[in-house]
Hints:
Elements: H1 2-10, E1 15-21, H2 26-42, E2 47-53, H3 60-66, E3 72-75, E4 78-82, H4 88-99
Parallel strand pairs: 1-2
Antiparallel strand pairs: 1-3, 3-4
Helix pairs in contact: 2-4
Protein name: Glutaredoxin-like protein
Organism: Tieghemostelium lacteum
Pfam families: Glrx-like
Amino acid sequence: MIRLQNYLFSKTQPIVIKFFTKPICSLCLEAKEDLYPILDEIGTDKFLVKEINIDLEENKEYYDKFKFDIPVAMIDNQVLFKHRVNDLDKLFYDLESKLKPK
């Protein structure tokens, strides 16, 4: 039983990226085209992208907050980018730095 517990606790959970978007958003599509290949390169098991459609009623708080800023990508309330990915190398570095122990 101890080995099983150690195994379960040794598995690291992916880091959640909250990606605020809406269905008809050309900047959101461009940002996805930049973000997902970088995640593929780093390792898809290390990050989990949670796409949040701000147009849905249950996400009204995010609509009020981000309606003029989408797309927005965040990890733990830290903005990775908003409006667009301006620097792919910086995004890659920022994501990799999230994997380093503190």
